[in-house]
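ok here's Putative 4-hydroxy-4-methyl-2-oxoglutarate aldolase:
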Amino acid sequence: MSFRPNAEQIEKLKRIGAATLHEAQGQTGALDSGLKPLDAGLRLAGTAFTVDCRAHDNLAIHLAVTMAGPGDILVVDAKGFIEAGPWGDILTLGAQKRGIAGLVIDGAVRDSEEIIAMRFPVFARGLSIKGTLKAQPGRIGAPVICGGQQIRTGDIIVGDRDGLVVVRPERLDEVLTAAAAREEAERRMRERLEAGETTLEILGLEPALKRLGMI
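and the structure:
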């Protein structure tokens, strides 16, 4: 993993948020909306550290926690399986002790109340009280499919109440610049709305409405 965003870039990514970043990179990179935050008040941003594990088995996840670095986000392809929770409060504590910044898992977690109390950002497809085995092989650091997106170790993951987006590290500066321009455009739009204009006027939507016979 050769590139890591610096602390200033991480805070900027958190502030900008997933939706604006998705728009800023041409409406690409969104993970599917089935992945939900355990605590919608927490924001997540960092470099992905990928894990490919078997459904109903978390052996590879335990290994990944020992290998990931401070600021990494564990991104786990658990095959969308939600009838067992391969992540819970014990792994959360282990991850926090190593400086891991969050978890995105295409699968389920358990011990959700404890994880929320620990203020560890987690995005998951579901919750399950059932435990998993620790007996099957997996892959660490290889590209995975999570939430319908291919994610590589070193990609940048941003998540908040609205959802998750992946940003390729080689595009980070470009995307941040486009996001800043989008924020400025939205600021000007709010000023025009405050001054009494409508979104129809600002966005030039009346011709389309007339063409469709709606006005």
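+1. The mean pLDDT is 97.
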